[in-house]
Amino acid sequence: MMAPLYEFGRFGDGMGLVIAVLLGIAFGWFLEQGGMGNARKLAGQFYFTDLSVLKLMFSAIVTAMLGLFWLSWAGLLDLSRVYVPETFIAPQLVGGLVFGVGFATGGLCPGTSCVAAATGRKDGLALIAGMFAGVFVFGEAFPAIGHFADSTARGAWTLPQAVGLSYGTVVGVIVAVALGAFAGAEWLERRAERPARRMKIAA
Amino acid sequence: MTTDARRRPGIERAFAIAAVVGGVLAIIAGSPTRPTRGSVDVTELARIVEHEEDHVTATELAKWIRDDKRGLRVLDIRADSEFEDFHVPGATRVPLAEIARMSLDSAGTYVLYSEGGTHAAQGWFLLRARGVKNVFFLRGGLYEWLEQVMNPHVASTTPQAVRDSIRAITLWFGGKMTVVDSATTATPSALDGELSAPHRSDARESIRKIRRRAC
Lengths: 203, 215
Description:
The structure holds 2 protein chains of 2 kinds.
Chain A: H1 3-7, H2 13-33, H3 39-43, H4 52-73, E1 87-88, H5 89-106, H6 110-118, H7 122-149, E2 153-155, H8 159-163, H9 167-202
Antiparallel strand pairs in A: 1-2
Chain B: H1 9-29, H2 42-50, E1 55-56, H3 58-66, E2 72-76, H4 80-85, E3 92-93, H5 96-99, E4 109-113, H6 118-129, E5 134-138, H7 141-150, E6 153-155, H8 160-172, E7 178-180, H9 189-192, H10 200-214
Parallel strand pairs in B: 1-5, 2-3, 2-4, 4-5, 6-7
Helix pairs in contact in B: 7-10
């Protein structure tokens, strides 16, 4: 998040850590404010009753994407110095599935489990313990699965490269997809709400 | 469960409209980078090149690095793997294409080097065109650095004071100076910056030796 300023040496490692801590606290604060520390709310995602996670993530993606695009266009940001995590198709598919199973059963993802733990929720603490156990097991098992973990490498692979469209077109399409997803999510939520109300009235 | 009292549809609509406008304009803009235009004073550049003020010797660069020259940025424009293998201490790897659009400190001093001298000289031109005044390149490229700084061969007839200064710089960068018999010396390179380009394999061998020493 602080990559461009850090890259140009505007501040050193110590200051970088201070800024990282402040950004981290702000991140956790806003996640909690959005109700993301609550496993029930997050699990609602998988039952199509509460799609806050989808809306929050897509809002963040669209905000960051438009911000990066236009800051770069204005010459204020050097996109080539923004780190792009490398793609490994097969291992990331498997990892994504494992992650999804953990998310759906635990009701929290790594970031939100920290938020949940910070407010004293026990499920958050349990999930953090699970996360460290998983990191440990993965590290110990790496000699055996390392070959797979490094397979199907695509390097820093971006959507414009993958689909062969211009950067701007991809940005426009993602904005359209996000707005469609928001509308769809609201519709699903309204549908999930109606029977609940009727039951209340009946009771 | 989702009807939240804090929700304000007006703000949500404003954000949605902003996103749509940003997205549609992005499609029109196409690329997040705009063409970088520069202009040069051709006469002045020709004069600089003519007077050989466009490059530094490896020894000069070594002194700048050692003395922590203000605003100095050393750019390595070789391939990534070569950079990983060995580079001038403190250098940043920058592909040539990147030089056309990277953010610049117009008051800084830029030194470019490549494997030989050609790409660095081209990068010099790009940086001048982008308005940086203090740009230099290593005419002999990394070869020159290896020969003059890391692995200098100094004739035994060279005055002691000159030898000591070369040795001091070489040691500072972890290299090794060799004194050769004046009869066999063929490399006065450490003194006047002139260089007979060594073979590629020689440079590779030097890099290997230096890496072994560094380990």
